[in-house]
Write a structure and sequence with these properties.
The structure is a single chain. This protein has 290 residues and is an alpha/beta fold. It folds into 3 domains: 54 residues, Beta Barrel (OB fold (Dihydrolipoamide Acetyltransferase, E2P)); 154 residues, Rossmann fold (3-Layer(aba) Sandwich); 61 residues, Ribonucleotide Reductase Protein R1, domain 1 (Orthogonal Bundle), CATH 1.10.40.50. 23% of the residues lie in helices and 27% in strands. The strands form 3 sheets. Strands 10-9-8-11-13-12 form a 6-stranded mixed sheet, sandwiched between helices. A 5-stranded mixed barrel has the order 1-2-3-5-4. Bound molecules: guanosine-5'-triphosphate (GTP), magnesium ion and zinc ion (ZN). Zinc ion binds next to helix 6. The site of zinc ion has 7 residues, from helix 6.
Length: 290
């Protein structure tokens, strides 16, 4: 008999599939062409007491990264929103944030920046306001002070993946929001104030307000997968207001003369830090693509 469900977690040789009856079924996949990712809609059959995934339905979206071998690797699929979590400790990695934002822009995901642990103070307001002024939604949260209602509003009716450095509080936020099986959370390392990579596999959870959330393992770094270097140019949303005025239509805003982006940076209409991160990312992707 054939049944359908959603992949809620993926391991090396099997995947946990939640079916329409909300049963969680451990399924294997034998066919080389079938590599289910968390968020995938699949069909499966039962054969001699083993559940086997037979098909993956077409995806509405794919969130990916480039791995060490230069290949595309999927983090989550069928998502509608990226929720990028940063915090006071560990300190924000702004380049990491810009890389996530560029990926979100290319994939046209809805995007929310969550600034967590505001019970510890409110630093970085200037930078956060820069992100607000270019159009990103930035919300403050605190698990400790039970301040998560604003986040719940953003999550409702979306399928979101929570991403960010280890220890920023992704799993803690999810535990606070959902009447769900609690995710394991972990202390920060006392020496370095960084997370200990507590969450090790992505997991899709359904909470109230018709929100689906994927908890993901914290990262040290991230590089978006781009089909070509030109895509990097489209990842920085505020460039759109100026790029038509560059002298060359295919200007990469790096070394060409009469570049409207570089002029906007000089005129302080584009944030210099963002532009430097754009260059850094552009050069990284170019090095990979060569
Ligand atoms: N003060 C304060 N601490 C928090 C808050 N949210 C989470 N923490 C603490 O931060 C630490 C890390 O929390 P986790 O939820 O495990 O972080 P994570 O982002 O899921 O980390 P990984 O799974 O390793 O990626 C724990 O000690 C939490 O108690 C908050 O709002 N305020
Ligand atoms: Mg976690
Ligand atoms: Zn230019």
């Amino acid at each position: 008999m054939m049944a359908e469900g959603v992949v809620i977690s993926r391991h090396k040789r099997d995947a946990l599939v939640k079916n329409i009856k909300a049963e969680e079924i451990s399924c294997v996949f034998k066919n080389r062409d079938i590599s289910p990712i968390v968020g995938d809609r699949v069909s499966y059959i039962e054969k001699h007491n083993t559940f086997i995934i037979t098909d993956i339905f077409p995806r509405i979206s794919e969130f990916s990264r480039i791995n060490k071998k230069g290949m595309k690797e999927y983090i989550a699929v069928n998502i509608t929103q990226l929720v990028i979590v940063i915090s006071i400790i560990p300190r924000p990695d702004w380049f990491l944030l810009d890389k996530y934002l560029s990926s979100s822009q290319i994939n046209q995901f809805k995007t929310v920046i969550v600034f967590n642990k505001i019970d510890l103070g409110e630093p970085h307001q200037k930078i956060l306001n820069q992100y607000r002024s270019i159009g990103y939604k930035v919300i403050n949260t605190s698990v400790l002070n039970d301040d998560t209602a604003g986040l719940l509003t953003e999550l409702s009716n979306e399928t979101s993946v929570l991403i960010g450095q280890s220890g920023v509080g992704k799993s803690s936020l999810i535990n606070k929001l959902g009447n769900i099986k609690k995710q394991v959370i972990g202390d920060l390392s006392r020496k370095t104030n960084t997370g200990k990579h507590t969450t090790t596999t992505s997991k899709l959870l359904s909470i109230n307000n018709n929100a689906s959330i994927i908890d993901s393992p914290g990262v040290r770094s991230y590089a978006p997968y781009f089909n070509n270097t030109n895509e990097v140019l489209k990842g920085f949303i505020e460039f759109g207001d100026f790029e038509e005025s560059c002298r060359f239509i295919n200007c990469s805003h790096i070394s060409e003369p009469d570049c409207a982006i570089k002029k906007a940076v000089a005129d302080k209409k584009i944030n210099k830090r963002r532009y430097e991160n754009f260059k850094k990312l552009f050069n990284q992707i170019e090095a990979i693509k060569k």
